[in-house]
Write a structure and sequence with these properties.
- Two copies of one chain form a homodimer.
- Chain A contains seven helices and seven strands.
- Chain A is an alpha+beta fold.
- Chain A has a four-stranded antiparallel β-sheet with strand order 2-6-4-5. A three-stranded antiparallel β-sheet of chain A has the order 1-7-3.
- In chain A, helix 3 crosses helix 4 and helix 6 packs across helix 7.
- At the A-B interface, helix 2 and helix 4 of A face helix 2 and helix 4 of B.
- The first copy, chain A, binds a DNA duplex through helix 7.
DNA sequence: CTTGTTTTGTGACAGCTATCACATGAACTA
DNA sequence: TAGTTCATGTGATAGCTGTCACAAAACAAG
């Protein structure tokens, strides 16, 4: 697959270096890409599919933070990789997903030598930071009905479809809520949502 | 004041450049340093005092995200500065605070030329990102009593004192809750807290 | 001391959400 | 067709939190 089209801002030399050193890897839908506490040894560029980034707590609760799409990179792995630390989040492949793994050792060089890479990294930080802030916004200021609406809209936007195929249970998990609540809300708001 | 001690990792040449180009500024307690939607033209290094970073929503609700201490920098302003964008958060001086303002134009040069600056920026991103994740954790997985406990502990740690001097109302605002709730919880948990 | 202001305590109540228990329905298989 | 499994609907209930109303305390200043 021609991954370069996903990163048009990269200069040719940078692309060459990445192609020489990075490893392409495929994850099946549902497969865990990065687990809480795991040691990070490379940064992932998403080529195809979708990665779900979420937080787990001790009691088995989980909470969706955001999705990574083709053309994006994992900010957490970047940060961790540059400091050889472990991550605090979990990443799983939502669907069959292909990524390009760039080894840590390369990161510093790329940052120093390629302006386009440097700007890509900054851009990645910014967008993930913004995303996190909007997540905080949501849970800090909004009730479940509004959070659900936000969730559905984001989901629709991400998938490009108007019909969302997920179980109520899955939605409840993503929002750290419970199935019954989601069912009730969907029924209640459903009427308003059709408009 | 000798600010260099706060940033021992900076190489002499970098310090020189900063001294030549940065502007030192003092904010009185309560003064707004950065407002939502404001255009960012410089990055702030905290020299003295404490800056409170929080999110506001339309209805006047607010929500504390974290504090900036001497020796730290504002990640949001870095990100925004590098992209000439507006911020989504508000920063006010908790107490009388002194900062060093580094103009945007300088940022790119510093990043390219000084490894210690580059690493400082990365470190800043990482710590703020981690902080945000722990904030998400808190509101996603914990009830008000636990959030209050977390808040008090952090507050005590930041101020270095064991006695916290704030009104219940202020705590309620920071947690986007209401005074009565805080009062009751403090009374209830108080017994357990003395231990 | 008296008065006014700010902070804190308390009870009543309503709304939201988690949980339990169980019913219904839909889809698939033997 | 009957049985099985998974997804969804529904009622009852309890706990947490926000809100209102008002009382009690603490504090400052005249």
């Amino acid at each position: 697959m021609d991954w370069k089209k996903l990163f048009p801002q990269f200069e040719p030399e940078l692309i060459e270096i990445i192609e020489k050193n990075a490893v392409q890897k495929t994850f099946a839908a549902g497969e865990v890409i990065m687990r809480t506490g795991q040691y990070i040894k490379s940064t992932a560029l998403v080529l195809e599919g979708q990665i779900k980034i979420y937080r787990e707590n001790q009691d088995g609760g989980e909470f969706l933070m955001y999705y990574l799409e083709p053309g994006q990179a994992c900010a957490v792995s970047m940060i961790c990789a540059l400091q050889s630390e472990t991550s605090e989040i979990t990443a799983i492949a939502e669907v069959d997903t292909e990524v390009l793994l760039i080894p840590v050792q390369l990161m510093d060089d790329l940052m120093n030598q390629y302006k386009s890479w440097y700007q890509f990294v900054i851009q990645t930080y910014r967008s993930r930071f913004d995303e996190l802030i909007s997540v905080v916004d949501n849970i800090a200021f909004h009730n479940m009905d509004e959070r659900l609406e936000f969730y559905l809209k984001r989901h629709a936007k991400n998938s490009g479809k108007n019909v969302i195929e997920t179980s109520h249970q899955q939605i409840a998990d993503d929002l750290n809520s419970s199935r019954e609540v989601i069912s009730r809300l969907l029924k209640k708001d459903g009427a308003a949502k059709i408009s």
